[in-house]
Amino acid sequence: MLAMTDHRMHTPDIAGAGDPDPDAELVRRAASGDMRAFEALYRSHVGRVHGAMRRLCGGAEARAQELTQDAFVRAWEKLAGFRFESRFGTWLYRLAINVALMDLRSRRGAEDQESPFDETTSSAAAPVARLGEHRIDLERAVAKLPPRARAVLVLHDIEGWTHEEIGVELGMAIGTSKAQLHRARGLLRRTFGESA
């Protein structure tokens, strides 16, 4: 099985349970209409949000940028309702993931028209970069997965979501989520020539 870097950002970070939220004062000011405070929050969190959008979009940079902007617009609109029950960064990240998932759900019909994952054609069109004998550009391979399989893989293996949470957010049965994860891992294994 492929080893993926574990960036589990899903576990709620309850404010007050540990260190105080470093963004708390900026959030208060931004919620009162202070655009400079919101710009500071944007600069502080845009990299992480954009990275998640890029992974969920399969590396489609223009789409990732558009969804990143959509996520921050939604955050601005909902900021007055932020209750400090978690850190702002955790709340924003979850909101951003939900923006990407809503986009994926809205494109459900179009995904049938996308070309299926084919390691022979994908390697000819955009060769998987190898850095030495054992390092492979996993991100590029994940980007070539079918959209729903990619979303399940990213949410489960990278973001740490459960199949139950994925099922709710993507509108699929838990068994379907598990099947999509199995499919995504199998496609990646075949791409890298690893045994199951």
Describe the structure concisely.
This protein is mainly α and 196 residues long. Helices cover 63% and strands 2% of the residues.
Q: What this model shows, in words?
A:
The chain has 196 residues and is mostly helical. It has two domains: 18-106, RNA polymerase sigma factor, region 2, helix turn helix motif (Rna Polymerase Sigma Factor, Chain: A, Orthogonal Bundle); 114-196, Arc Repressor Mutant, subunit A, CATH 1.10.10.10. It has helices at residues 24-31, 35-56, 61-78, 88-106, 108-111, 119-125, 138-143, 147-158, 163-170, 174-192, and strands at residues 130-131, 135-136. A two-stranded antiparallel ribbon has the order 1-2. Helix 2 (35-56) crosses helix 3 and helix 2 (35-56) packs across helix 4.
What Rg, in angstroms, do the CA atoms define?
18 Å
CATH class of the largest domain: Mainly Alpha
Query: What is the count of structural domains?
Result: 2
Structural class: mainly alpha
Shape: elongated
Query: Mean of the pLDDT scores?
Result: 78
Supply the CATH architecture of the largest domain: Orthogonal Bundle
Biggest β-sheet: strands ordered side by side in the sheet: 1-2
Question: What is the beta-strand fraction?
Answer: under 5%
Instruction: Count helical runs.
Output: 10
What's the end-to-end separation, in Å? 6 Å
H-E order: HHHHHHEEHHHH
- pLDDT below 50 for ≥5 consecutive residues: which ranges? 1-17, 111-136
Biggest sheet layout? 2 strands, antiparallel
Q: How helical, in percent, are the residues?
A: 55-70%
CATH fold type of the largest domain: Rna Polymerase Sigma Factor, Chain: A
CATH superfamily of the largest domain: RNA polymerase sigma factor, region 2, helix turn helix motif
